[in-house]
Design goal:
Layout: E1 2-5, E2 11-14, H1 19-26, H2 47-52, H3 54-64, E3 95-99, E4 103-104, E5 107-111, E6 117-125, E7 140-146, E8 150-152, E9 159-160, E10 165-171, E11 183-190, H4 195-201, E12 209-218, E13 224-232
Parallel strand pairs: 5-13
Antiparallel strand pairs: 1-2, 3-6, 4-5, 6-11, 7-10, 7-12, 8-11, 9-10, 12-13
């Protein structure tokens, strides 16, 4: 759903069903029911608040920010969902960082022959304060991968959509960071990728390399980490 402001006095609601929602509606058996919804602020540039302060910055955001139209593809809709927190004095939100022996500049390298698995850790961190608010410490994470090329080892996906996007809901690790943040250890493996697939999906200048992405979202914090995965046919 998108909020389209026609003028200073009118706000138009542009609501559409996602592709998955349309599939459920098309069953026409009475099972389709909207029981909850989420809000997002993907289009908001919060650096305006830092530059102009809360009062003036909020006014500039409200008056000058273009609002996205509603999208039917759930993979692109609502990338940064809003969260509800009871702490009225909260100023900073946590973010997610990627750690691993085969990670460089947020790019994970993995192979298709002898190096088909990699272990990485997603860590919850925060700047400018000593600890993460307890309400924002993620207990679970949503992990999305391209099911054509990748899988999360040791578990089955909760859903695979028509775009072959596999979604996993994973529980956090038992430990925590010095700031009280959560960590998630991911065992990533490649599928059996054929030479034909490398010819079709490989880079235009290097058919031995396929580039894809993994998206990790914290359910409690709403923080999102999306990182690149390079799959080499020679590794």
């Amino acid at each position: 759903m998108g909020f389209l402001q026609g003028d200073t006095n009118n706000i138009i609601l542009d609501a559409v069903l996602t592709d998955t929602g349309r599939q459920f509606l098309s069953k026409n058996d009475g099972s389709f029911s909207v029981v909850k919804f989420s809000l997002s602020d993907d289009e908001v540039d919060y650096s305006i608040i830092q530059k102009y302060g809360r009062t003036v910055g909020q006014e500039k955001i409200e008056k000058n920010t273009p609002v996205f139209e509603a999208l039917t593809n759930q993979a692109f809709a609502q990338k940064y969902r809003c969260v509800s927190v009871s702490n009225p004095n909260l100023i900073y939100l946590p973010n997610l960082t990627l750690l691993g022996n085969n990670v460089s500049n947020n790019i994970l390298s993995i192979g298709n022959t002898t190096q088909k698995t990699r272990t990485v850790t997603v860590s919850q961190n925060i700047s400018n304060v000593s600890s993460i608010d307890i309400e924002l410490r993620d207990q679970s994470f949503i992990v999305e991968v391209n099911n054509l090329f990748l899988q999360v080892l040791g578990t089955a996906p909760d859903n695979i959509d028509n775009n072959l996007r596999a979604t996993y809901i994973l529980t956090r690790d038992s430990g925590q960071t010095a700031q009280g943040g959560s960590t998630l250890t991911l065992n990533v493996g490649t599928k059996s990728i054929t030479d034909t697939q490398f010819q079709i999906y490989g880079a235009s200048n290097n058919k031995s390399l396929i580039t894809t992405f993994i998206k990790v979202s914290g359910i409690q914090s709403g923080a999102v980490l999306e990182f690149q995965v390079n799959i080499s046919s020679t590794l």
